[in-house]
Amino acid sequence: MAKEYQPFEVTEVAMMRALAHPVRQQILAELVSRRQGRAADLADALELPANSVSFHLRTLAKAGLIVEAPELARDKRDRVWKPLSTDGYTLTDSSPGIPMVTAPVMRWLRALFAGDDAAFLGEKDETVHVVSVSQGPMTKEEAQEFLDEVNELIRRRGERLRDARDEDRSVARPMYQTVFALGPLLRSRRETDGSREKA
Question: Which helix (H) or strand (E) covers residue 89, if one does?
């Protein structure tokens, strides 16, 4: 039986504040890709000081975004952390303080749109940078079905990528980010504030 796609929903202001820091977003992404991790391993992967990563891990834990996994520790001094979900997290219209978390994501999207290859991990000729925008008429039910299909694809792909990484850690795998957004088109400015839209 296939595992259900279960990202955790960001519901607390403390979670938003913790996720607002781009380094903590990187640490959480790395932790999700590894399923669990120690500060030293995460620091090595992200080329950051271990004491800084430890601080950020404690902040993520205090916010309830990660938990300690003592069952994976080698001894009593060993601290292993795991994410609440290896399916990542979701933001909804009820999530508090969304701009705090989306600012780093919007910077990432701007770099993608601008073709700023130097802004990304990995070499340009060894990575893929793409933005795809599409539109289509659909009912609310069809939109939900589309969302479910994409989420299932993300879940399956995530599992395969984590398994491949576990099997061969010698292969360089820059961390990729996926942002999926689905919603109706915006109203024109003329309709919402009476201003004249620029061509």
Answer: strand 89-90
Rounded to whole angstroms, how far apart are CA atoms 37 and 68? Answer: 10
Q: Which domain holds residue 141?
A: 8-184
pLDDT at 80: 94
CATH for 176 = 1.10.10.10
What the block records as the tokens of 113 is 């749109």
What pairs with residue 82 in β-bridges? 67
Question: Number of folded domains in the chain?
Answer: 1
Radius of gyration for the alpha carbons in the chain, expressed in angstroms and rounded: 19
Q: Which residues of the chain have pLDDT under 50?
A: 1, 197, 199
The dihedral sign for the CA sequence 164, 52, 107, 88: positive
pLDDT at residue 108, rounded to an integer: 87
